[in-house]
Amino acid sequence: SSLKVTPSAIAPGRLVANAKGVLAAFRITTGAVDIGSLNAEISHEGGLALTAGTTRVELSSFAIELDGQEDILTGLAVVNDSLAGRIPLFNLGLGGAKVGGNGNVLKVDDVGVTLNKVAAETLNKIFGVTAFTENFPIGTADVRAILDNRH
Asked: With 28 labelled, which of 10, 79, 104, 149 sits at a CA distance of 20 to 30 A?
């Protein structure tokens, strides 16, 4: 808020204020998960827009990429209707995550989410500030996925 950057949802994504802050929700479209190693590739639809004055950054088509070494969430970045490309947005910390589920539902709770270095540098450049920093805490993420056991 001090930067006067206003977030909004890109449909079908949603932003909902609750007692803990703001919940961002994005529907899973495709993906694959290796439960044993928790390696995964999970794609989402919708996204977030960040607007300050006449500058609008749209971050969408999120992809969670878990490989046990660099666990990140990437997204397509569009700045004022010009494609900037797919960039790493958030680092995902699985150290404190709780993995479970029942039947064909996978639950992963309490994934730490911090701002990725590339995203911080990109946002600083776009908005002409120095306020975005690597590893800035964004919050926690929870994943709910219905698994198709054919793969």
From this structure: 79
Report the predicted TM-score, pTM, of the whole model to 2 decimal places. 0.89
Calculate mean pLDDT across residues 10-33: 90
C-alpha dist (Å) from residue 130 to 10, 86, 97, 122, 138: 26, 22, 31, 10, 17
Determine which helix (DSSP H) or strand (DSSP E) holds 126, and give its type and residue range: helix 117-127
Q: Is 75 exposed, middle or buried (0-12, 13-18, 19+ CB in 10 A)?
A: buried
Question: Per-residue DSSP letters for 7-41?
Answer: EEEETT-EEEEETTEEEEE--EEEEEEETTTTEEE
